[in-house]
Design goal:
Functions as a peptidoglycan terminase that cleaves nascent peptidoglycan strands endolytically to terminate their elongation. The protein is mainly alpha-helical and 342 residues long. Among the domains are: 79 residues, no CATH class; 97 residues, no CATH class. It is 44% helix and 8% strand. A hairpin with a 5-residue loop joins strand 5 and strand 6. Helix 2 crosses helix 3 and helix 6 crosses helix 7.
């Protein structure tokens, strides 16, 4: 057997050299992989995963943004973790200080769903809503087209030409690319939540259908200066309906003429012009809601304050410059307060 100086066989020396080379190769591979999976050092980045995006495409995007060093390393880690198919549509907040394992865990978790907050104020008309949505980044014209489809509410269908009165004023969270139809359906559904069996029964006890209730609530919304006044205004209107007295509500005149309330001109005959909405020229409720009332207005009709302190029915009210509302039983008392407070 061939031996080298020192007494070791040649094959032993060769084997030791091969083992050393293997160890060096393994160490090099380990350091290489560790380098690829180490934090890339890039800044914060919000990844948006869209429908149809693949893990490969996402990994390449993150490599290009300096969030990871190697797209292949991320794909390998997620396959090893069994999360390669767990990407969800939405936003992922990432940072180059994360290791590939850290990025993989983030991508396997829940996505942040992007939303746009849109506030629809109480008392706005259908015609006012497109501008609100346009400002929030949606297609206002397309939303208006859907708002003109009364079939989306069973209470408006066949009775009016738009959804006036049947979209609920509130703050909504919509996805940035939500469809106009879905947006309107959401607001209609929220309004329908107000029509509980108990409340519908309360309205029926007042001889009001759901639509009548909404019409009256829209008038209260337009007339009352604040929520505290709403039951008082509602009580006056309910009493006048019961007694067969014209409601005489200025906002109904304005709506019928397509004007805003400050634009009404008595000298131009606005209050004598007949429209289906005028409660000066016609008895009873107007032809439909004149805006989209909020919860306080809706509740005020069901919980109206119909009596004066002396027990008589409230039939007249006026808003004085001092910010107070004055309520009377007779027209003579009403004229007296007009002279006194206006």
């Amino acid at each position: 057997m061939t031996r080298l100086r020192g007494g070791r066989p040649v094959w032993v020396r060769v084997l030791l050299i091969l083992l050393a080379l293997l160890l060096l190769a393994a160490l090099g591979a380990f350091l290489y992989v560790r380098n690829l999976t180490a934090p890339a050092g890039g800044g914060p980045y919000t990844l948006e995963v869209k429908p149809g995006d693949t893990l490969g495409a996402v990994a390449r995007e993150l490599q290009g943004k300096g969030i990871i060093k190697s797209a292949d390393a991320l794909r390998f880690v997620m396959r090893q973790n069994g999360t390669a198919g767990s990407l969800k549509e939405g936003l992922y907040d990432l940072d180059g200080s994360l290791s590939v394992q850290g990025v993989a865990e983030k991508l396997a978790g829940p996505a942040r769903i992007p939303v746009v907050n849109v506030t629809v104020p109480e008392g706005r008309r259908i015609q006012d809503l497109p501008a609100i949505f346009q400002k929030a980044g949606f297609d206002g014209a397309a939303i208006l087209a859907v708002l003109k489809d009364p079939s989306l509410s069973k209470y408006a269908a066949g009775k009016q030409n738009t959804l006036e009165g049947f979209v609920f004023p509130a703050t909504y969270e919509f996805r940035p690319k939500e469809t106009p139809r879905k947006i309107v359906e959401t607001m209609v559904a929220r309004m329908n939540d107000e029509f509980t069996p108990e409340r519908v029964a309360q309205a029926k006890a007042l001889d009001l259908s759901v639509r009548d209730w909404v019409i009256l609530a829209s008038m209260v919304q337009a007339e009352a200066a604040n929520d505290l006044e709403m039951p008082i205004v509602a009580g006056v209107f309910l009493n006048r309906l019961k007694d067969g007295i014209a409601l005489g509500s200025d906002p109904t005149v304005a709506y019928g003429l397509g004007k805003d309330l400050p634009e009404l001109d008595r000298s131009a005959g606005d209050f004598t012009k007949d429209t289906p909405y005028s409660t000066y020229t016609r008895m009873g409720l107007p032809a439909g809601p004149i805006n989209n009332p909020g919860e306080a207005a809706l509740q005020s009709v069901l919980n109206a304050n119909r009596k004066l302190a002396d027990g008589r029915d409230a039939l007249y009210f006026l808003h004085a410059p001092d910010g107070k509302i004055y309520v009377n039983h007779t027209y003579a008392e009403h004229l007296r307060d007009n002279e006194r407070y206006r």
